[in-house]
UniProtKB/TrEMBL annotation:
<keyword id="KW-0805">Transcription regulation</keyword>
<dbReference type="Pfam" id="PF00392">
    <property type="entry name" value="GntR"/>
</dbReference>
<dbReference type="InterPro" id="IPR036390">
    <property type="entry name" value="WH_DNA-bd_sf"/>
</dbReference>
<protein>
    <submittedName>
        <fullName>GntR family transcriptional regulator</fullName>
    </submittedName>
</protein>
<dbReference type="InterPro" id="IPR011711">
    <property type="entry name" value="GntR_C"/>
</dbReference>
<dbReference type="InterPro" id="IPR000524">
    <property type="entry name" value="Tscrpt_reg_HTH_GntR"/>
</dbReference>
<dbReference type="InterPro" id="IPR036388">
    <property type="entry name" value="WH-like_DNA-bd_sf"/>
</dbReference>
<keyword id="KW-0238">DNA-binding</keyword>
<dbReference type="GO" id="GO:0003677">
    <property type="term" value="F:DNA binding"/>
</dbReference>
<feature type="region of interest" description="Disordered">
    <location>
        <begin position="243"/>
        <end position="292"/>
    </location>
</feature>
<feature type="domain" description="HTH gntR-type">
    <location>
        <begin position="29"/>
        <end position="96"/>
    </location>
</feature>
<keyword id="KW-0804">Transcription</keyword>
<dbReference type="InterPro" id="IPR008920">
    <property type="entry name" value="TF_FadR/GntR_C"/>
</dbReference>
<dbReference type="Pfam" id="PF07729">
    <property type="entry name" value="FCD"/>
</dbReference>
<dbReference type="GO" id="GO:0003700">
    <property type="term" value="F:DNA-binding transcription factor activity"/>
</dbReference>
<feature type="compositionally biased region" description="Basic and acidic residues">
    <location>
        <begin position="1"/>
        <end position="10"/>
    </location>
</feature>
<feature type="region of interest" description="Disordered">
    <location>
        <begin position="1"/>
        <end position="25"/>
    </location>
</feature>
Length: 292
């Protein structure tokens, strides 16, 4: 990450810091929490591929931790359905499929369009202040997209949507959405590796922001629904290019293939190995919003 991307502009509204941001630094985490973050990121970026068997000995050595914290991390990933613990077999990375993507994305579209519409009906002064904050986040997303930094694009994409949905005042619906998002993160990483989709996503964010600023709930909800389902359309149209990643790729005609698969493979081959875990002992950790 470049120095420019990590600096906070002097004019940035302080309230932006209330929108969920980057994960805590390693030294503020217990080993099992740090291992969970490291393994989750590897799964999201494809460095650990769907169906891949996970050797506890190898992973413990790579991460520089014992098997106890590693098993705790794997159990958390299993709860998010990112890994599977099959009897008498090694842990494996969970498979992904078109059917799973459709289920997740249709659920997200319903929830996110509802939350976006509700956000557009929030008090005008609160909404105006938030729109100013969102403009900053959108600009950061565009910068990350231009740099080809998929991790940063994911970060600003997520914070942009969180900033909108927080205006809705619907915590139960947000909790349900968080559950679906945990399952969809791998898909998001795949299609944001495609530069053209990443630029389109930022443009769609700008349109959603305009509708939110205008206080137009119908347009805000409709644009958000289209935005979410656009990701699903891209995934189902490119699965044929990812036989090693998607379990039902044979159901997609070969002429539906695009460059997304190559982009995703290129992205995961450029990832660097993480540093070893922090030393024993705990520093009071920063708060991390738990997944629902």
């Amino acid at each position: 990450m470049s120095e420019d991307m990590t600096k906070t502009p002097p004019e940035e509204p302080a309230a932006i810091r209330s929108i969920p941001g980057p994960a805590p630094a390693p030294w503020s985490l217990r080993k099992q929490d740090w291992a969970y973050q490291q393994l989750r990121e590897r799964i999201l970026t494809g460095r650990l591929a769907p169906g891949e068997r996970l050797s506890q000995e190898r992973l413990a050595n790579e991460l520089g931790i014992s098997r106890g914290p590693l098993r705790d991390a794997l159990s958390r990933l299993a709860a998010e359905m990112l890994v599977v613990d099959r009897p008498h077999q090694k842990w494996t990375v969970a498979e992904v499929s078109v059917a799973d993507a459709r289920d997740i994305y249709n659920g997200r579209a319903a929830l996110e369009s509802m939350l976006a519409a509700a956000a557009a009906q929030s008090p005008s002064d609160v909404r105006a202040a938030r729109c100013t904050e969102l403009e900053v986040l959108l600009e950061r997303q565009r910068t990350a997209t231009s740099l080809g930094d998929v991790a940063e694009v994911r970060l600003w994409d997520r914070r942009f949507h969180d900033g909108i949905y927080a205006l809705a005042g619907m915590p139960a619906s947000l909790g349900a959405l968080d559950h679906l998002r945990a399952k969809s993160d791998r898909y998001i990483s795949l299609y944001l590796s495609d530069t053209s989709r990443a630029h389109t996503s930022a443009d769609e964010h700008a349109d959603i922001l305009d509708a939110l600023s205008a206080g137009n709930p119908e347009r805000s909800g409709a644009l958000t629904r289209t935005h979410v389902l656009g990701g699903l359309t891209l995934l189902t149209g490119t699965i044929g290019d990812q036989p090693a990643t998607f379990s039902d790729s044979a159901s997609v005609p070969s002429d539906a293939r695009t460059s997304l698969g190559a982009a995703a493979r290129n992205h995961r081959t450029t990832q660097s190995r993480p540093a070893h875990a922090p030393d024993d002992g705990e520093v009071p950790p920063r708060a991390v919003r738990p997944r629902k």
